[in-house]
Amino acid sequence: MSDFLELFRARADAGADGVLRMPFDRFMALALYDPALGYYRRDRKRVGRGEGTDFFTASTSGPVFGELICAAAEKLLREQDAGADLRDYVFVEIGAEPGGGVLAGVAHPFARARTIRVGESVAGNAALTGKCVVFSNELFDAQPFRRFVFRDGAWRELGVALDARAGALIETGLPAIEGAPMRDAPPLPPAPMPGGWHLDLPLAASALAREIAAQPWSGLFLACDYGKSWRELLETTPAGTARAYHRHMQSNDLLAHPGEQDLTCHICWDWLAEALAENGFSPPRVESQEAFFVRHAGKYLENAFAEDAACAAGAGSRKRSLMQLLHPAHMGQKFQALHGFRAARV
Q1: DSSP character for 188?
Q2: What pTM was computed for the model?
Q3: In this predicted model, what pLDDT tens digit does every residue of 126-140 receive, in sequence order?
Q4: How far is CA 301 from CA 72, 134, 342, in A?
């Protein structure tokens, strides 16, 4: 914590009152991505159920998730690129955890599988050229977001300040916003709004989607994550969607363990779909994770359940993984999949 406070002091802006402050997205960028102290830059295991981990994702289910992704991608490519040789496609995973990828240990029909790690540049990356399947799992929800609250008759941006006397980080309000928010945020609902209404805006996620889509590749874009429509974010989440994960405990204390806990909020699927459409993708589609796999990996599921029924030995672990990924009470409805296809330019 003392190291992070020194980093905060060096990067924050001093106001007229002498208080050091920064908007929340800048704080989050430091807490997650600073080369030395950032949560996602530390060489440690974050994902899984073992000691010292903080959360688990679909990839925790082992090769089953990769097999489902592979089957769905193959079906979507054959529908969009009739007669295609899948060996012409490279599977590119963005944001894969160190030491692996979703297709690690999974037989696949693609030319090869490549990963772009956290911190690696997307712009100009040689992996994003030619025919690709560009995949991510919980990449966009981990991008810095901005926070707003409706207070005293106006929208105010929330930031982080250093309480010099206590030697601790605290939430602070930034100057009131006149009209549309600063720094390219969409217009927020006009007054009156209920006092204390929060909005967490995943603007960096949308910028990243545009950057990925702007690269000179063609093929399938597929992102698994959790999010809401813009209308849902405006109307159904009065407390916002920001939260922290530390040692498998969910918390609303976003400042508790900077550099040692995950910070996240729901992404806006409308904004990501717009980013794809603006860059020449066919109309992108968002489906629940359950619906996505049932519709696009149905043959794999049929075979998997048939094999499990025919062979009791070893059947339990794969069936449990499938239930975790598909059941509405687990990941089936909590997560969604966005996919779109862009044909090669002639």
Answers
A1: P
A2: 0.91
A3: 999 999 999 999 999
A4: 11, 23, 27
| Tens-digit pLDDT profile for residues 269-286 | 999 999 999 999 999 999
Is residue 181 one of the residues assigned to a domain?
A: no
The CATH number assigned to the domain holding 57 equals: 3.40.50.12710
Question: Could you tell me the two tokens for 87?
Answer: 């060996």
| Burial tier of 200 (Cβ tally within 10 Å: 0-12, 13-18, 19+) | buried
Q: CA-CA distance, 276 to 269, in Å (whole number)?
A: 11
Q: Which residue blocks in the chain are alpha helix, DSSP H?
A: 2-11, 24-33, 63-80, 203-213, 230-235, 269-277, 289-296, 298-310, 315-326
State whether residue 199 is helix, strand or coil: strand
Chain-centroid distance, C-alpha 238 = 21
Domains: count for the chain = 1
Checking if the pLDDT of 165 tops 70, the result is yes
Cβ(90)–Cβ(110) below 8 Å = yes
106 in a domain, yes or no?
yes
The answer to whether the Cα torsion of 237, 239, 244, 246 is positive or negative is negative
